[in-house]
Amino acid sequence: MISIKDEIVLITGASSGIGASCAKVFAQAGAKLILAARRKEKLQEIADLLGKEFATQVYLIELDVRDRQAVEIALNSLPEPWQNIDILINNAGLSRGLSKLHEGDFQDWEEMIDTNVKGLLYLTRYVVPGMVSRGKGHVVNIGSIAGRQTYPGGNVYCGSKAAVRAISEGLKQDLLGTPIRVSCIDPGLVETEFSQVRFHGDTERAEKVYQGLTPLTGDDVADVVFFCVTRPNHVNISEILLVPVDQATTTLVHRRN
Questions:
Q1: 42-72 per-position pLDDT tens digit
Q2: Domains along the sequence of the chain with CATH
Q3: 117-134 pLDDT, tens per residue?
């Protein structure tokens, strides 16, 4: 296992769920964190906790990854000590709605594609050139089992996550001959704010998604991300499909009640 002490780790979607869990596991290991999300107050809470518990150095960016100009400005205006990003975790992502494609909401489509695909591309485009020039770096993209298997009503979300997987494969090919590593982590059911966001705040409907089974947690996924980036430098874990024991496919799930 290689040490990531004092490495600079940029995590998008860091205000909750998998992103917040990644922040904690990397803080424990002594990394310096750049945390980006739309909710600055939530980021500040996380930063305060990590500072108290681990004395972690944290730089916060209030950022909507869908806004390319905002991404450019945020990254180009990083203070000098924070500019050399060692690890990029493209975690920002969401799902909206569960409608049939021919009944889908255009705004939901735009939000998913702009966040899950274009946002990931923007961050990658602005961060990776620095990694290449320094000869050091690791990009971790958080995909989904939905990028491998579709399900009813998942149409555009599944398409966006299939794109994440394809982009990860393409990036790895483009970086062949450099020391830069690329990993794509595809979780199944993870109990975070994901379903509440999908159902536009309908908590009761969101809770039913995880009823009668034991889903993954954000910490479970963060552990896998951490494992990937701490392998020896000649080892690249290209992709991982991570599911709870109670889940076999996107639609085949065991519920105990």
A1: 999 999 999 999 999 999 999 999 999 999 9
A2: 8-242 (3.40.50.720)
A3: 999 999 999 999 999 999
For residue 210, the model assigns a pLDDT of: 87
Contact present, 59 and 79 (Cβ < 8 Å): yes
Handedness of CA 229, 230, 233, 237 (dihedral sign): negative
Q: Which spans in 175-202 are helix H?
A: 194-198
Instruction: Give helix 40-54 / helix 17-28 axis angle, nearest 10°.
Output: 20
**Rounded CA gap, 251 and 107, in Å?**
26
Say what the pTM is: 0.95
Residue 161's identity, in one-letter code, is K
- pLDDT for residue 59: 98
Contact 12/242 with Cβ under 8 angstroms? no
Mean pLDDT value across residues 191-196: 75
DSSP code, position 248: S
**Which among 122, 151, 157, 210 is annotated as catalytic?**
157
| Of 7, 33, 227, nearest in space to 137 by CA | 7
Q: What distance, in Å, lies between the first and last C-alpha atoms of the chain? A: 41
CB 34 within 8 A of CB 24: no
Q: What angle do CA 119, 123, 125 make, to 5 degrees?
A: 115
Neighbours of 81 (CB within 10 A): 10
Radius of gyration of the chain (CA): 18
Active site residue 157: yes
Segment 194-231, tens digit of pLDDT = 667 677 777 777 778 888 999 999 999 999 999 999 99
Q: How far is CA 37 from each of CA 93, 159, 163, rounded to the nearest angstrom?
A: 11, 23, 22
